[in-house]
Amino acid sequence: MTPSRFCKSIIFTIFLLAGGSVLAMDQEMRSIEEIQVRKQTEARFPGSMRVIGIKDGSVSLVVEIDRTGALQDIFVLQSSRKAFTKSALKSLAEWEFSPARCDGQAIDSSIQIDLTFEIDQKLKWQVQSPMAASQARTHSDGSPIQTAPFNSLDQIPFPIEIVEPESSPEGQATIEFYIDESGTVRCPRFTESTSIAFGQLMLDSVNKWKFEPPMLAGVETNTMVRQVFTFEDGRLTASDLN
């Protein structure tokens, strides 16, 4: 298909960010309060692991939580064994969260949760901002695959489905998201924005996009993307993160 003007701008933005170009918008960024865990349930140590003598395991996941505190998606970044993944996913379905907030207002966002399993011990867990991992799994496929840093990919993943905002206030927002091996956007969040309205608008748009699968050495992979979107004077431009 022929890319729209907006789509071409997005591709141009990606290339600018990959190359480190600079465009800055002189507006104050709004502070973000991260997602909070309100209720955590114990994850069972897998019986199958106990039987074969495995005494510990770990799983790292990114969870997408909407502005009501509801769980929307789980993206598994790393897991030592499939049995631990299954136990972690079953447990997380029962966890309760308070949504992220921007200037006190609830927003959609995501957060990374690292789980450590030890035989005959309580589950250990910690939360942190999402980041790239050395290995990743999707929760629909237990097979581990290599996760590539964005700047190591064979080429920039081309956006094949773009949802264009019908209208937009002027503003700037930093959006972080994963592109999985099918080209689907997973667990996006905005880390800063000049306004809640603009940050949420870009988040809602990016969440519906579709990309060509990221490739590393000819093999489909996952990657993490961090982009700064700026709408000013009716144009989309890119800002450097540094």
Automatic annotation (TrEMBL):
InterPro entries: TonB/TolA_C, TonB_C. Keywords: Membrane, Transmembrane, Transmembrane helix. SUPFAM superfamilies: TolA/TonB C-terminal domain (SSF74653). It is a single-pass membrane protein. One of its GO terms (cellular component) is membrane. Residues 30-126 form the TonB C-terminal domain. GO terms for biological process: transmembrane transport. Coiled coil: none annotated. Pfam families: TonB_C. The keyword Ribonucleoprotein does not apply. It comes from the Bacteria. It is found in: Membrane. This is TonB family protein. It comes from Pelagicoccus mobilis. The lineage of its organism: Bacteria, Pseudomonadati, Verrucomicrobiota, Opitutia, Puniceicoccales.
